[in-house]
Structure formats: C-alpha cells, structure tokens
Amino acid sequence: MSIPPASHVPLWRRPAFRALIIQALLLAGLVALITMMVNNALTNLDERGITTGFAFLNERAGFSIPQTLIDFPGNSTYGRTFIVGLLNTLLVSAMGIVAATIIGFAVGIARLSPNWLLARLAAAYVEIFRNIPLLVQILFWYFAVLQALPSPRQSLSLMEAVFLNVRGLVVPAPVPETGFGLTLAALTVAVVASIAFAIYARRLQERTGKALPVYWVGTAMIVGLPLLAFVISGSPLSWEMPELKGFNFRGGITIIPELMALWLALSIYTASFIAEIVRSGIQSVPSGQVEASRAIGLPANITLRKVVIPQAMRVIVPQLTSQYLNLIKNSSLATAIGYPDLVAVFAGTSLNQTGQAIEIIAITMAVYLTISLVVSAFMNFYNARTLIKER
After folding, report:
1. Is residue 259 classed as helix, strand or coil in its secondary structure?
2. Which of 7, 115, 257, 328 is the most exposed place for a label (fewest CB within 10 A)?
3. Cα 130 to Cα 144: distance, rounded to the nearest angstrom
4. What helix, strand, coil percent values describe the chain, rounded to 5?
5. Mind telling me which residue stretches traverse the membrane in this protein (predicted)?
6. What count of Cα atoms within 13 Å lies in the side-chain half-sphere of residue 282?
7. Among candidate residues 312, 259, 250, the one with its CA nearest the CA of residue 281
8. Is the pTM value of this prediction over 0.90?
C-alpha cells in the first residue's frame, strides 16, 4: 500500500494545519476575554463617574514628600510625584544591592573559613536573618532601633560633624568650588585609564602568562590624578556643616530614619541568602582545583580570587540575579514605615486622591517589570562576558 504524497492529504488531516487552527482559536478566545474585561471595567468606571486616561498626571498633587532627590515644590504635579517615588525606589534598591552583595560575599566566604568561631558566627547570621520575615525586620530596625535614638538636642555626634538622632543621620553636604570640574575630569580620566590598563593586562597575561599589578596601578591612578588636580586647582569642595537651630538641624544632608531602616533590613535580609549562594558556588568548584593551585605555590587569597571565585560565578550569578530582583520588589514594603517610594507616594497617596486605580497600578506594575528586565539583562550580559570558555 503506497502512502499518498503530502499534497494529496486533505488539509484538515495535516497536523501542522490542525495545530495552527487550535492556536488561532486559543488566541481569539484570549483576545475576546481581555476585550470583555476591559469593556466591563470601562463600563463600571463610567457608571461611577470616574474618568479614565493619564491627564491626571498634570494635575497638582497638593501634598509634600519628606525625602526627594529632585526639587518638589508645593505646586508639583502627580507626574512629578511619580518621578520622585521612582527615584526613591531606585535609590534604596541600588544601596541595598551594593550592601547586600558585600555582606553576602563576606559571610559566604566566612562560612567556609577554617576558623571555627568565624564559621559558626557566619552560620548563625544566616540562620537568624534568613528565617525572620523581612517586614518584621523592617519594623524592628525602624521602631526598636532608630525610633529609640535621642532627640536632636541630645544627638549622638562624631567629631561634631556627623549627628545621629531620632530624625535621622545628618552629615555635611558637599558644595562644589572652582576646582571641582578639573578634579572630576581627572577622576574620570583615571577610571577610564584604569579600565583600559586592566583590559591590556588581561590580554597580556592570556598571551604571555605575565601578570601585571592591575590593582596597585589602578589604585595609584584613581587616587593620584585627582590628588594632583586638587593640588593644582585648590580645594574642589567645601562642606556645609549641619547646625542645631531650635529643635532640628539646619544645613547638611539628612538621611531620614525610614530610608535607614529599609536599607538595613533589605541589605541584611538579602545578604543572608546571598551568603548561601556564595557558599554553594564555592563548594561546587572541584577540590582538585584548590589542591592544584596549592601545589604550584599560590597563596590562599590568590587561589580564592583567581581560581575558585571565577569558576564559582557560573553557579552564583543566576541565583544572585534572582536575589537582586527580590530585593527590588521587596522595597515596596517601604509603605509599612512611611518611606516615600513609588508604591507609597504614587500607588498610595496619589491613587487615593485621584481614584485612577487602573492607570496608576498599571504604571507601577510596568515600572517594576521594566526595572527587573533591565537588571536581568545586565546580569545575563555580565554572566556571558565572565563565563569561562572551554577549549
């Protein structure tokens, strides 16, 4: 019995055609469902007299925000409120990622230390902070620690320049002077030159095996060039010192306690997970690699930095990316202590005043999605660039 050619098989009996029809029906059903939900929402909003659209972003907000990275005058709009909340979210997220990474790597390496006491302390840190809910830790730092600090008149001070009290941390504010531009240009040149030297040193080592003192040369350039510009141009910065006037400090920079509590909680909590990621990544490296490095006389610190960590990063980076994304999304818990992040001032106060729930929540969700995708893309790029290529 001969099998008829494909061109003679009826169209409805072809698997590819049936699969296409099924996918088309599913897509049509999904579009119909979304259309019905949108129409239903618009009908309900119209019946309640709630207008839709994004025109509310140009309306006056009518409330103040305790911490802003840009000017927020009294006539600011809801659009500017969104920008202020977004910048505050990015600020605490960036600070948390840096601090959590440093603490996490330090604790993760300490967990594998031959020093019994250091390893046990690191293990206790992980088990304690990993198993306490993040919201509870935020409330602990805010109410039990920072709200127990003295009033501004009895502030804890460091050299009469830095003050810590119940209203936050007050530090001197830098004021650019005439030589600031030259010093900044020198620092930029030094950083670019250090990166170029590091790339050259790596390629030279790959070709010849000769190692150059990258860290020492880079540090000398980053410190030396701005210092030379400082000597030539004079002081690039002056400092506005905080002064106690009445019941609070005037001048300087004030880091509000809400930011401090959120930063501490996010950093310490996320670092406990990063520590375990680092530990597992290091332990995934075959022990023969360490034994081989010891056999050729490499010191322990160089073995860790040049042999173990580069191979462990293939295990560390994907999990590290997830923790970074969790930290960014967990920053939305700031609303529990009143830190003016995107959720608090835009998806909270602005939503209550305007009633534009769909638009505001959609914008907020889109912002967190965009930030997460950007971080994921950067970490994937970093992982691809640093991945050890097999010969």
Report:
1. helix
2. 7
3. 19
4. 70, 10, 20
5. 20-38, 82-107, 128-149, 179-200, 212-232, 252-275, 333-351, 357-382
6. 21
7. 312
8. no
